[in-house]
Amino acid sequence: MTPPIQDKMIDENLKWSRINEDVLRSMENPRRAYWITFAVCLAMFAVAIAAEIYQYRTGMGVAGLSNPHMWDMYIATFVFWIGMSHAGTLLSAILHIIHAQWRKPIYRFAEAMTTFSLMTAGFFPMIHLGRVWNFYWVLPYVSDRGIWPNFRSPLVWDAFAISTYLSASALFLFIGLIPDMAIARDHTRGWKRKLYGVLSLGWRGDDRQWRNFRKTYMIMACFLIPLAISVHSIVSSDFAMSLMPGWHVTTFPPYFVAGALYSGCAAIMTLFIALRYFFRFEEYMTLNIMEKTCKLTFAIAMVWSYLNLIEFAATWYGHNPYDKELLIDKATGPYAGLFWLMIFCGVIAPFGLCFEKLRRNMPAMLVMSVVLQLGMYVERWMIVAPTLSMAHNPHQWQTLWGPIVEWSIVFGSFGWFGLLFLVFVKLFPSVSMYEVKELTFHLKHEIEEEAHAAKHAQGEAHGHHGTQGGGGVPVMAPAAPRSGKEGS
Amino acid sequence: MSSVKLDRRQFLKMLGVGGAGTALAGCDLPTTITLEEGKEEVVSYLLPEEYVIPGVGVYFASTCTQCNAGCGIHGRVREGRVLKIEGNPDSPVNTGKTCMMGQAGVQTHFNPDRITAPMMRKSGRLQTVTWDEATAELNKHVGAQSNLNGGRFAWVTGSVSGHQSVLINELMAQLGSTNHYAHEVVNASVWSAVCQDMLGDAMPRLRIDKAGTILSLGADFLGTWISPVHFAREYAKFRSPAKRGVLVQVETKMTLTGGNADLWVPARAGTEGILALGIANFMVDRGWNKVEIPAAVRAELAEYKIEKVAELTGVAGSKIQRIASLLSERAPGLVLAGAPVESSEQGYASVSAAMLLNIIIGAVGTTIEPATRFSEKALQAKAGDTKSLLAFAKGLQEKRFDVVFISGANPVYTAPDALKLVDGFESVPFKVVFSQFPDETTQKADLVLPMYSAMEDWATHVPAYQTDGAVLSVQQPLMEPLYKDTKGFGDVVIALLKQRSKNYEQFPDYYAYLQTAMMNLPEAVTGPKPVKKEFWNGLLQKGLMVTKGDRATLSAKLSVPVFAHAAHHEGGHDDFMLVPSARMGMFDGRHANVPWIQEAPDQITKVVWDSWAELHPEAAAKLGVANGDLIRIASEHGSIETQVFIHKGIRPDVIGVPLGQGHEEYGRYAKGRGANPLKILNPVLEQKTGELAMYATKVKVSKTRKTVKLVKMGGSDTQAGRQFVLTVSADKLRRTEGEG
Amino acid sequence: MSFKNVLENFSNFRKDAEHGGHHTYEHRWGMAVDLNLCIGCNACSTACYAENNLPVVGKERFAKNQAIHWMRIERYWDPKDEMYPEQGASFLPMMCQQCGAATCEPVCPVAATYHTPDGLNAQVYNRCIGSRYCNNNCPFRVRYFNFYSYYESAWPEPLQMQLNPDLSVRDKGVMEKCTFCVQRIRAGKDKAKMEDRKVLDGDVQTACQQVCPTGAIVFGDTLLPDSKVSQLWKAHQVKRGPFTQKTPKDDADIRGYRIFDELNVDPSVMYLERVRETEV
């Protein structure tokens, strides 16, 4: 057995100016690859717009929907995008609170991913409506008819939860960006300088500002974590609060949250590899961090698999005939191919993450992350569609496959997300410069402390009581306590 | 809602006078056009009649003409247009109910494909002309100056009754013609013939409500046979807790009535009569007969032993015995025989067998009662049949006609190709079609006279099947005519009659004629000394008159029919008997242009908007076809292609293709949809009556490579274990009956 | 919106009708469908089309299950049939059950569907934004969505003249379903009011009830003790309320039941078992 490769999370001797340069370089004028990707995303988005205009004007029938099958890919994609947003919160908030240092180089784009996937997800509850132009009726406002939305409805809870989460995430992203905006402001000219100047809110980087900053960030992180969990729980209640077989499942809230984290982590892997390659961020998005991400993904995959199997088990020994027949139909009926694809991609494929060689192989991980995301998308669709195809009344059973209009809009949503993300990576630093600097600092400090401790241990063994304490490299008292384990 | 009846003059007053009324009737629903733009004429209701409350419907009585049962209807009229049809509670035919075809009557009336102006064939094409031109052309060929030889004139109608029948007969007499062909695809003519011969009355009253056991040999009495709404009312009593009737349906393909049977028996095609004789024999053996059986009859019956009958019919002996037991234990029994039995090669013999069984079980006088005929013979129904179509086709072949009138029939659609009717028809020098729609026959006309719909026209109807008392049902307009260039049937005929007879000069139109004719009916019909205004208003208010009529007397002629040969069909694996069944809805194809009818799923198969070929799973497996596969069904005289529908309600040696689709014309909803099985019928005749045996065509089935999507309602054929339709065994009920 | 109000009314919620319910009902419309009498003829379905301005959608859209038939006749075969369906077919007229504890009501985001004081589940067309959650939560799947502007093709001139002016023609994006002919209920109530009397049994007939040739459908006010429908519910021992009927049917002639009773949705429609001779 070869011993696990012990490479560093990041080179602790990385000069801070180098960090600035590398990251700011990623924000310079884009090259051809960028424009091609941009064009592709734009094309995808344009297809979606065209499809939506057609659907808006003709009616939801073009989406192939029917009685009984009134929700299909739009809702599945909606849940998918909401789910994808959780990983950003996981990385930037949850891992922040538990002081996982390895998140520092990658959380920025993850948070951006959160915000943008929420912005993408937000479209779907609107476009799936029959009368899209009245969507604002789900919001509570003083109307001249004296009517309020129906607060008992999970869709109204969705409206609240998602708008809250979106604004909170955007705010969180923005706040986290402030010190980086200041760096960018100091290193650019022209309109960009003006832009960053405004966005950095006059950041000077002095002690007081840092202290406030840290506090604010921590409070927001603590606020965002329960919010994130509640958002996807609420989205799951769209299904759990109904009485349909296959939907009326009490484990849906944690199941959805686990699935969200799962697909989000997989998305992080994809974007990690993409940014690392295109912007040459090998120094920052190291293989070490990739490994940690993979392990996190694997852990979440196991949680998700467990919750999935528990759902099957509960259905099986619950003996509710509707649920049981539906489960059997999922596994053996017209949707069986997708069901087993979901099992494969979601339960079996993540075991590939156990192999170190695979983990450190970027192309393999790219494929793996896409497979995992595919699995999770299929899982979302498998929740929505089979229940509607085979509910209580057998007279209304119907197998449905989405038509081109649905595919266009779903496809196009990826284009929209891509557009947002592409704009982001060019305008804003996709690696958090100040946090990376902190990381190098901590690592350096740790290494020195260890060296110091080792020397001390040696010294004691030789009975030296020599000069202690302040000798050696002066140690700046870090603002935050040292975190726990680093490395493997 | 108020239910006030009024007569025509008051009705017109209500709508404003004359022309303004028609403007209102042609009104669209309010649009967003404002008064200021001056694009709409707003006629105010400043002086409405007292009983008209804006927003509240007024009901007028009339008669439904969607089939020939003659149900009375109420039309709900609001703002000058008829919106909905309900049944007339006063009519003993339907006592306030209608069927789906009756409901669809409004869509027949408001149909977008109605012919709105007369048309004449000029240089090969039908072109719109004025009524003056049309009348001139008509008179040229049929008028007093025309020198028409009556023997060279033919008139094809559907079933006719009432004063329309009188006028038709009058015109035929005037023209010196005897070539009146009353043609209906859906008819009970063989049943009538047997009833006449064996019971002395052509259409006795069948008391389904009194029966304890009904053995129906293919009679779809809940769907298409004779008077379905009336029978459905009686069926409700038949199924009541007091009666707990048992329905046994014997047919090769499940009809609506078969779907409601306690026992559905798919006997071999053409052997239903033998089954009846087997049951009769068994019952007589057991001494369960309710009448004396002469020795000769006894001897003839004895041939039909259970084993032999079981073998010939394919029905298990135990079942035959069970049916016999039911007829005896759960008396009184009633045996019916419908289209699949009547319209086969030995249909008369088969129906006679059924009637013999009726006599033996004592149904005559208990569940079969003498009919009450309407006392004015001239007004009685002349029921249509297929014999007339055959005769007409023969006449066309022999080029015996110079002038042909067609009204209320579509022979170009209903005639089998084997009769070569279309060619014959096309070669007639002058063809006049009285029609509402551009159907197949109309499109081949030389002169098309656009008719009022049933909701715009006057008529009287005397149903062929009478129930409680003899009914004459009145049909009155439920609104002003939609199109100014359409005319009433009676109006046109009276105009023709006037040319040769002074008797009609006093009548400006059919309405006037009807009033006088009704008043001139004998007192036995109208009641003592009727005063015109009260009589007429009363008649229109009620919508009908129920008279005592002439009660027939029933005899019972015991005779055992002789079957020339055991008419059963042993098919090869692609050989089938074709079952071209009519159904409640499309009927014989006349309602294919009504969107509600097309969208209404067939009651048994639930297929919509198309035709289909029903196959048993075994037959389908042998052929290697699945639902939706297009197959070719070929007889000796043609072939059709349609989609497969697989279900167990049909014999494996039979293929069922419903009537109704396969129109080549007839408007946007009917045209180019499905296949018409009538086309490929072999010209087999029923041996005794000469009727076309529609259920006697053998066909070969072959696969094509094509598949279409079978469009039907319903995602599951079973309840999948859910408790939707719970069935309780009657046996369980009987055990608890009488307790508390 | 006082706290006291919430506390007081909370215990009223889900009370069954015998104990007052959580509404004060003026009427409680109910139906009894006798499956023994239903022959599956489709007259009720067609009458519903005529009365309620239901659009005809055509073959293509019907194939995709986008048709609108508020009243549909479901036809089932017996899975135990071997060679032939010897006991015929089972016909089930299925329409909105106007559930007392409707599952569609709580999930509509804009409260376009709610429970009326008449015991009906009402659908407000102009409030509906078309999220379609209500049909997803309906175990009977009796809600229909306007997937297109059907009126553009369903009523070519002059078919639109047949439209019933007592109710609207729905545009695309709006859910609709059987309303127990609420326009007729309204008219019946108005008439009674004008005549200064109560609504009597028989004043209001739904279109399906009025047309049914066998009289299988009985409709009326279950709060009136002498209405035909109340008597049927009583005779067949089916009670209102969001619970499963536990009455053991000792007498087989007591044939009443409700569909999906175990889901506790309190349907207002009672079905009577069909009786078939099984000893044949």
Provide a descriptive summary of the structure in words.
The complex is a heterotrimer of chains A (488), B (740) and C (280). Chain A is mostly helical. Chain A has helices spanning 16-26, 32-58, 73-97, 107-121, 124-127, 154-187, 190-199, 207-240, 252-278, 287-318, 321-332, 336-348, 356-359, 362-389, 404-427, 433-461. Chain A has one domain: Up-down Bundle (Formate dehydrogenase/DMSO reductase fold). In chain A, helix 6 runs antiparallel to helix 8 (207-240). Chain B is of the alpha/beta class and 740 residues long. Among the domains of chain B are: 119-184 and 376-457 and 482-524, Rossmann fold (3-Layer(aba) Sandwich); 189-370, 3-Layer(aba) Sandwich (Dimethylsulfoxide Reductase, domain 2); 575-707, Barwin-like endoglucanases. Chain B contains 26 helices and 28 strands. In chain B, the strands form seven sheets. In chain B, strands 5-4-17-16-15-6-7 form a seven-stranded mixed sheet, sandwiched between helices. In chain B, strand 16 (430-435), helix 19 and strand 17 (447-450) form a beta-alpha-beta unit. Residues 12-40 of chain B have low confidence and may be disordered. By secondary structure, chain C is α+β, with helices and mostly antiparallel strands. Chain C has eight helices and eleven strands. The N and C termini of chain C lie far apart (64 Å). At the B-C interface, strand 3, helix 3, helix 8, strand 10 and helix 9 of B face helix 2, helix 3, strand 2, strand 3 and helix 7 of C.
